[in-house]
Write a structure and sequence with these properties.
The chain has four helices and three strands. The chain has two domains: 55 residues, no CATH class; 69 residues, Nuclear Transport Factor 2, Chain: A (Roll), CATH 3.10.450. By secondary structure, the chain is of the alpha+beta class. It comes from Gigaspora margarita.
Amino acid sequence: MAHDPILTCSKANEDNLNIDLQAFILVNNPYFKQFIYELDSHLQLPSQQTLHNLIISKFASQKDLIKNFISSLSYKVTLTTNIWSSCAMISYIATTCYFINNNWQFCYILLDIFEIPSPYTGQTISNIILSLLEEYIRKQNFSINF
């Protein structure tokens, strides 16, 4: 199989963005582009949209694995949510699952990111979170306290 420098760079950059939680716009940064060029002048960075599509595709393909993994956990987890608005004033909510594994390592998994539809109310946010919990976690494994 021939070495595809564009695919190789896309995969490496995709992993970097996922692990370090970098923004897709990183591929447009002239200093980052120069850094990549100096590493290998044959590599071509993917566009911001291509990188976005690669990550969304990878997330979709891993979603069932994540669901099965979380359902199989025999220890406690903590869920956190973060809400923010984009520059275009679109609101989003992200839910992350945190836990300590059997080797006493702190771990986390981003479960999903949703756009928050209008009206932006506590009920709307609650419905999103409950829907996510129903999708990811077997009901016998969790309880919700307010």
